[in-house]
């Protein structure tokens, strides 16, 4: 108050001694609420073509900012295919080595898998399987059955019947590989990928920016149940295999993108109200936005230490029926086991495949002969180069198992043993959880991969770049464009679907419902004056070069029609138009 | 962001600087008449509280001196651009810019602009001997400066000044002590009240904070106070700005001594101290352009269409020293004069602070308070006047004056807010003694500069030709009691 009184007093004194002045107030006009243009009432608008060319502008996008971006934008930005083989193998190794006390606490399905992983010739019980006869045969020659089985598999008696690596690779090839989401992803349309579908690397999890930002929470959805052919209601449905997933992405994760672009929007007109609207100019520049010759055009920080899948539970379902092994060589190369006709995600098919790989990759053609004390060969077990296994007795030591592919014999053993303890068929689902797995990442390699991916498909960054440069305003029907160089003409561009303002979810804020996009010479819109001729590399917009005195007609997305008259130019980079609704 | 760039403040700063007695002498917009034309450093009247308080000591009677005046001016400026300018409706921000963006028409002379300020003025002085022939007290209330400028809003000077108004009053108390007939001493203290308003087109290209903001975005640019002409005066960055209701309070003092070697010869020496001034007002800037309000919001640039806030302007007026001499040639003739040396070189810059929460642009590193130093680099100046006074009759005295002021504003910083030059002063005056106690005083005073052609203006801001002519008339009533 003293200050006010002093000011008042001094003002009075000043007023007495000299006129208090005086100068005009700085004021701005009140913002007008756009109202619908009335028919026949022209309105003058001035459009500005102003370029604010930012060069090598590094935009840092941290996690917090990314979470403000529409989810679709993030999920559409594929970063890399991450090979899960090593990660899954490590988990299976750990599961196998789990102490019994801890293993007892596992879910039944996890215990089933642990049992499978721990099978070896020494602990496997062949009773109830086709190899049961091997028990008697072995006894007759004084050889433990485990040794005979180990010899057949060309491993030691305590070696893994099916090593974790084989299990993991089979899971990833068959279970993951058969899922639609692991086969292809959306990418750039080019000559090699005319449909825009790009294959995903084998045994790999396609990782998007959304996975990192949202800590892999969408994995169960993406890798949940999915039809193999969405267009066919009768198509097989992959049951999915990720039950739950979560991740850890530390706040340090930040992506830096360097851009070169005109950061200002194009100025256009919403014909409905004659409002001067802004059209985001990013999409039209996207091919030139990134300087791929600059090695730092994109960089990522906080990735190598923080990309962690804290939990991903994988489940494999068992068929409700026992699936016997085959008993014939044909059809080659797998034989006639019904397992090969099962979908690749079912346990029986997977176990058959594991056994087949174990045979093909680890067991060569050989014969094992077992002799009596008299040095007479009592029986012989031979595996040929196709895995076909025949056991032959030469004395009265018992009946040999019927010939079969070795994988059929092994998969039968695995199936039978998984049901020990009274487990019914169909209840031996297999499950394992990847927990707190810090995926060792080579940051440089991954960043390089990200660069390669995005350089190949910069359009993938349109969404995020538009969001970072979100300057659209209103709903323009057309906008003013001046070529950046060489052509000093003035052009009007009719908007395309790509120009529509985006909502908070990154989706167009309105449908593109123009029946007759373009500019015409007559009110009936029969004589089109615009074309998609190449201007500054753009061939997608209907566009027309204009000059003072031109009169054009056009229609908006509500089927209203307008006349626009090009007025004298206020300045070189400003265009004045008179817009009149005609109907 | 420097809301008030160097050029933004020139009008106010220059005018305010001249608002205090003495400092006004070096400006083209100073009041030609602070007191009656019969008052000067060796004059013995009530206005001595301002000119030389020592002379109060020689007053034998109380005296009231009150007057009114009218100041009119004619200020013209023919801008002549010597730099290369970008097409105004583009926005290339890093020099050297592509030659295709250079506006070939924007060079050389442009249309003349002029302002014709009219401002009334007034003053009141009172002197009263409290100890006869020994001690006299004095009071002065006067307006050492009152001026108004109104240039065309769209003229080529608009980045320098569009409108300005300045009025400064002083309330001055002084005392003079007569030691003897040969020597008197005096001193005074003055309260200084300043009021200022101004408007101009603020060129954001010259704003350091704007340059810094772009640098924050990693965009090398040529903006800032040293911006070359290629990036100046762009449409989108030229924003209307005003400083309104700016009031300053200051205190200063003066001392003087008068020596009378003979009865006819008077010598005066005075010193007027510097004055710290701090104006507090309100600023407003029109940022109602999508560039500032909308289009770059994602990059952190989003102002309200109209930003208002508090603004301060600080500077220190320079000290000055005056030597006056008067000599009575006979009963009817007297000549007097003075030379004043002003340490304007002390005024090197104006310091401005603008504060508003609406200024803050955190993502660009711009806070809500902006400070700026505005270099002026003025020069010390000299003011010389000589007068002849002739008592035509017993009741009528006539006077004529010639003078000269050297400019304070150098070519580097001159502009239309402080038109300045080699100033020639002329004045005529008269005193009619209506009665032994009552006198009427009339003055007409003129000053002008020869057309000043400037080519060395920093960044081509003020190049061109300046013309100035100011006339003032005043009438006073003097009563002795």
From TrEMBL, chain A:
Q: What is this protein called?
A: Acetyltransferase
Organism of this sequence: Nannocystis bainbridge
Q: Where is this region: Disordered?
A: 518-541
Note the superkingdom of the native organism: Bacteria
**Biased composition regions of type Basic and acidic residues, renumbered to the chain:** 525-541
TrEMBL record, chain B:
Which InterPro entries would you find in this protein's record? OMPP1/FadL/TodX
Top-rank lineage group of the source organism = Bacteria
A Pfam family hit: Toluene_X
Q: Which Gene3D superfamilies match?
A: Outer membrane protein transport protein (OMPP1/FadL/TodX)
Q: How does it sit in the membrane?
A: Multi-pass membrane protein
Q: What residue stretch is flagged as signal peptide?
A: 1-26
> In which compartments does the protein localize?
Cell outer membrane
Keywords from the named record:
Cell outer membrane, Membrane, Signal, Transmembrane, Transmembrane beta strand
Keyword check for Zinc-finger = no
SUPFAM superfamilies xref list: Porins
In the record, the note on similarity to other proteins reads: Belongs to the OmpP1/FadL family.
What name does UniProt use for this protein? Outer membrane protein transport protein
- Protein's organism: Nannocystis bainbridge
